[in-house]
Amino acid sequence: MIQEARKYQAFYTKSTPIVDYMVNKLKLNSNDKIFEPCGGDGVFVEAILSENEFANIDVCELNDGAYQTLLNKFSHYPNVHLRQCDTLLDSDLIFNSGFGGVYDKIIANPPYGAWQDLDKRAALKKVYHDLYAKETYALFLFRCIELLKDDGILCFIIPDTFLNLHMHKAIRHHILTNTKILELVLFPSSFFPGVNFGYANLSIITLQKSYSKIDCLNNEFKVYNSFSKVEQLAKICEAELRTFSFKQKEILANPDYAFFIADNINITDAINNSKLKIGDIANCVTGFYSGDDKTFLLVNSLELKNGKNYALVDANSINRDYQNIPNILDGIEGEKHFLPIVKGGNTKYLKPEGWFMNWSKKAVSHYKSDSKARFQNPQYYFKFGIGVPMISSSSITASLIENKLFDQSIVGVFPKDESLTYYLLAFLNSPTCNKLIRTINPSANNPANYIKKIPFILPSDEQKLFIDITVQKIIDGIKKEGIASKILENELNEIIETIYGF
Ligand SMILES: C[S@@+](CC[C@H](N)C(=O)[O-])C[C@H]1O[C@@H](n2cnc3c(N)ncnc32)[C@H](O)[C@@H]1O
């Protein structure tokens, strides 16, 4: 049953406030032609019929079991038309889309992240060539926008990733130029009972199709977030929510048409208008993977976090002089062939040493030829730079890569002007930077492409000198006492706040 649910991503909308909010948003009229593209067990259909038992509803559902449930529940309604079909590939739906749409209202909770076999993915790619076929919810959204008549309204509950991620650029463009967004609400996925989707946040988007691109671009819409409980959906105007207003043409002017929803206008201004980005002043690259860490990676203590399944390194086999070895990228001759490597984990400024990679000639030649290994960006191995873990726990963190190897769970940030390293290290650890990266990408992921987009502002010479001295003191403190001084960190955060203005 669970596997079945995974395959079809059949997580049903078992939340009355969510269903009521969504049905409400459709502003149903008695003669509307309504479509539910992913019927499931029919929660939306039931809610619509309870408002108007004669509502004219077409329902599609792919899965046998769910389709049978729908038949049991609704086949005695002559006004409810059930079909077992694939909404994304169904030829009738594709045909109807080509004629400017046939529905007045559409409501859906489409599958998110449903696993597609390769044949299906290839078929989807053919029909939805501009869109990212691996994440089907955007395809459902596209198909349903096409199926709406002019002025028709659609309400979808979907992850909020379409607002910012690169892969959803095309669907953003389609929404902004073919529809008027009526309302967007953002809330934690925990509001959705029963299932942890692995998505940080969900959104409910209500759109009105418009054939007039000018009207779409001039449309202004509101975004609501910071819900504390799901019941607030019933009374959005009274609830104490954060509200943002945008014109669609403003969003279309953003890099990648991304929706930057930040509390502070200065943050979005910085993202949109900064002359320099981190990608201009630093190389941001993903690190190394052996292909088989259980064999090649060792620890210096079994107490090390996540270290228990790895063998202990013999202190005599660690090479401390590796920077003087010519052609180090070809590996090391002899017994002393283990080198320190920086891995993920959210530690600020400096990580304690713990992990060591086998860097013998034989091992390195394996890394270069093995299909699972990633001997990527080797020109940055053993260089002085900064490591930012790809996944942050709460805030983004950064620590020095002191001429070590760094693994693929880390983005290595190597300033083109090395003298900027300490400033960048302080900045990447600051709340200011966290606000920026979470506006650029609200999920807890920091892949290189997002780090590159963070605005960069050069400090004055005075500010830089103060920051360099303070970072050095923090690092010396960590080396001596094992922890970073909170007082010094706060001083750095304050000065970075002054530089950026938030
Ligand atoms: C997330 S559930 C939502 C069900 C229901 N609308 C609700 O909100 O409770 C998605 C439903 O879509 C169905 N489904 C998945 N892929 C589909 C497809 N390509 N065409 C039609 N239905 C599909 C699944 O079987 C599942 O019942």
Write up what this structure looks like.
There is one protein chain. By secondary structure, the protein is α/β, with parallel strands linked by helices. It folds into two domains: 2-261, Vaccinia Virus protein VP39 (Rossmann fold); 280-500, no CATH class. 34% of the residues lie in helices and 22% in strands. It contains 19 helices and 19 strands. The chain has helices at residues 2-8, 16-25, 43-51, 64-74, 91-97, 118-127, 136-147, 169-178, 213-218, 248-252, 265-273, 278-281, 293-296, 361-369, 421-428, 431-440, 448-452, 461-481, 486-500; strands spanning 33-36, 56-61, 80-84, 103-108, 148-159, 179-188, 201-209, 220-225, 242-247, 276-277, 282-286, 297-299, 311-312, 338-342, 355-358, 383-389, 399-406, 410-415, 455-456. The protein has a nine-stranded mixed β-sheet with strand order 3-2-1-4-5-7-6-8-9, sandwiched between helices. Strands 11-18-16-17-14-15-12-13 form an eight-stranded mixed β-sheet. Helix 3 (43-51) links the parallel strand 1 and strand 2. Helix 15 packs across helix 18 (461-481) and helix 18 (461-481) runs antiparallel to helix 19. The longest helix has 21 residues, at 461-481. 42% of the residues are buried. The model has no long low-confidence stretch (mean pLDDT 92). The structure holds S-adenosylmethionine (SAM).
